Amino acid sequence: MLAPALASAQTATLTAADQDLLVRVRQAGLWEMPSGDLARSRADNPLVRQVGMTLMVDHGRLDVAVRDLAAKYNVALPDQPNADQQSWLAEERAAPTSSEFERVFANRLRAAHGVIFSVIAGVRAGTRNDEMRAFADTANQVVLRHITLLESTGLVDYTKLPQPTVNTTAATSASSALDMSAMGIVTTVVLGALLCGATLLLLWLIRNSARRRTRSGDHDAADLEPEDVPAR
């Protein structure tokens, strides 16, 4: 009865991090789909146009999944790009040349995908909800594909991307988990060795006791043998 109860508990609610991911993915689609549409009309580079089309299609599919989950768990979603996203779209529209548009397009979207990528990874690593775990898997594949495509244009300036940071809290937690696991293994080995030793000692005592009884029986039998009778 515990297994069904556990499974139910794992799909019953969403954490704040789960809900935040749904909001962020929805928010991303609200500007990345229009940005992809701009690429189809503003870019001269056929690869950039193709990347724009891929972003539109993929985010359209993700948006359907996001809205379905949000409706199921009563999560409020945004319905328009935020101020930063609106400024990025305005920057793309204002690009004076096709090549400048392509540069802005590739770099703005690459930076944005890098941010959401880490959020997806965090939820995938720790969510207790089965549906969110599956959604994070899908979103992770989509975002990684977009990052790869954007980088394939050769327009991404990696020096402008945020430097990765070390999450000391996560590292400490992982280290503690590994330490606990190691302690459990050591404890199991020690207990196993003690149990094995105790078993061997018990068997030795039983065998030694049996030998003593056998020897004692032999001596008793010898004592009971009739004395030699002198010949007549």
Proportion in β-strands: under 5%
Helix content: over 70%
Order of helices and strands: HHHHHHH
CATH T-level topology of the domain at 11-164: Ferritin
Q: Which CATH architecture of the domain at 11-164? A: Up-down Bundle
Shape: elongated
Radius of gyration: 36 Å
CATH superfamily label of the domain at 11-164: Ferritin, core subunit, four-helix bundle
Q: Figure out the total of helices.
A: 7
Q: Please state the average pLDDT score.
A: 84
Q: What distance lies between the first and last C-alpha atoms, to the nearest angstrom? A: 90 Å
What is the tally of beta strands? 0
InterPro entries: DUF4142 (IPR025419)
Pfam families: DUF4142
Protein name: DUF4142 domain-containing protein
Keywords: Membrane, Transmembrane, Transmembrane helix
Labels describing this entry:
mainly alpha; DUF4142 domain-containing protein; 7 helices; membrane; Ferritin; DUF4142; 232 residues; transmembrane; transmembrane helix
Describe it.
The structure is a single chain. This protein is an all-alpha fold and 232 residues long. It has a domain of 154 residues: Ferritin, core subunit, four-helix bundle (Ferritin, Up-down Bundle). The chain contains seven helices and no strands. Helix 2 runs antiparallel to helix 5. The radius of gyration is 36 Å and the shape is elongated. This is DUF4142 domain-containing protein. Keywords: Membrane, Transmembrane, Transmembrane helix. It comes from Amycolatopsis acidicola. It holds the Pfam family DUF4142.
